UniProtKB/TrEMBL annotation:
Documented EC number(s): 1.5.1.2
Pathway named in the protein's UniProt entry: Amino-acid biosynthesis; L-proline biosynthesis; L-proline from L-glutamate 5-semialdehyde: step 1/1
Domain Pyrroline-5-carboxylate reductase catalytic N-terminal positions: 6-94
All residue ranges annotated as the Pyrroline-5-carboxylate reductase dimerisation domain in the record: 157-258
Protein name: Pyrroline-5-carboxylate reductase
Species this chain originates from: Pseudaminobacter salicylatoxidans
């Protein structure tokens, strides 16, 4: 099998490792065509001995056709990568395409925002491509991120900043709801194991019904409200208590933080 050599800067970090594992497991790339960088090269990907692990990002860039930047945004200024002539894919929050171009000499730039569910091939990954990214590159990007979940191209870079707030948190927002539910269940003196299983059954199992292609969140809520049973009483109390407003305020705050990260410093 031939194809582009993919290099992942930060490839042994949690997200870089998840992407690397997914593209290897799905056969998107063969081990001999993947390079990862790490400050500890001995920590290469377990189970994939043919994957090259290097300590120098400049070495990785020289070997690669496609470079994925998977480091924390605050670490980016210290990353030395010459991506001239390469396809550069950033999975860093808050680093705009202009800053990526200025630092790496890249012209073909993609900004993407996977989330932690990439570890279980359930990430939702929106991505934005600069004007120089051609059709073949876009096909590659879509197929790459579909190895660890689903992916959508968005047409405006500001959409990535918003979706960083909306989908980037992955399990964090559902975990907050689960934490509130678990705290309430504990006040009823349920066994801890029962309380945790009950909450997880709602958050991770029953909510899977929303994954159906024709599922409607609005219709689901309206159906239970119209039924006027115990669930309707709970839903109405949450709505009246400001649930929608609290979620909107949280997303506004997360978006503002993402936009602040994107502003030139």
């Amino acid at each position: 099998m031939t194809g582009p050599v993919i290099g992942i800067v930060g490839g042994t970090g949690w997200l870089g490792r998840a992407i690397a594992s997914a593209v290897l497991a799905k056969g998107f790339v063969t081990p001999d065509r993947l390079v990862v960088s790490s400050r500890s090269p001995a920590a290469a990907l377990p189970g994939w001995p043919d994957v090259a692990c290097v300590a120098d990002n400049r070495d990785l860039a020289a070997r690669s056709d496609v470079i994925i930047l998977s480091v924390r945004p605050e670490q980016f200024p210290a990353v030395e990568v010459d991506a001239s002539g390469k396809l550069l894919i950033s999975v860093m929050a808050g680093v705009p395409a202009a800053a990526l171009a200025a630092s790496t000499n890249a012209v073909r730039i993609v900004r993407a925002m996977p989330n932690a569910a990439a570890e279980i091939d359930k990430s939702y990954t929106p991505w934005f491509a600069s004007a120089a990214v051609g059709h073949a590159d876009k096909v590659l990007v879509r197929q790459l991120f579909e190895t660890c979940g689903t992916a959508d191209e968005v047409l405006h870079e500001t959409d990535i900043d918003y979706l960083t707030a909306l989908t980037g948190p992955g399990p964090a927002f559902p975990a907050l709801l689960a934490m509130a539910m678990l705290g309430h269940a504990r006040t009823r003196s349920l066994p801890e194991s029962v309380a945790k299983r009950a909450v997880k059954a709602v958050i991770t199992e029953a909510s899977a019904l929303l994954a159906a292609e024709n599922a409607s969140m609005e219709e689901t809520v309206r159906t239970f409200l119209d039924y006027r049973g115990t669930t309707a009483a709970g839903l109405q109390a949450m709505i009246d208590g400001g649930f929608m407003d609290a979620v909107e305020a949280g997303l506004d705050a997360a978006e503002a933080a993402a936009l602040a990260m994107s502003r030139p410093r």
